[in-house]
Amino acid sequence: MQIFHGRAADKPSESRGPTFTGQVWADPVMPASGGVMVNEVFFTPGARTHWHTHGQGQVLQVKAGKGWVCVEGQAAQAIRPGDTVWIPADERHWHGAAADSFLLHTAISVGGTTWQDAVTEDAYRSATA
Description:
This protein is mainly β.
């Protein structure tokens, strides 16, 4: 058994960079342990992940704001506080904030993450229209 205590008051949030578009901040809740990683992720309006997949899947629990999650080949689906999203293993997807709102979610990633190409501004607008 392991206990991971809450975020230390003197530890800053992590700015996420090359696999995200826009300003995204994260607080690790549980470092990679047994193939599972948990992060609280804050997206500014319009910020989003790049396309990616997870080796065994991902759970998103929406805490505040509003956003989108999109599976390749489908229109993006709106997400809001209280929603829980299950993304199966190897399903290519992206997620992020709505253009007019921040988004805060808990991301529980199982297995490795394979980061891919950025979601272009045109693709983001098209998927969320």
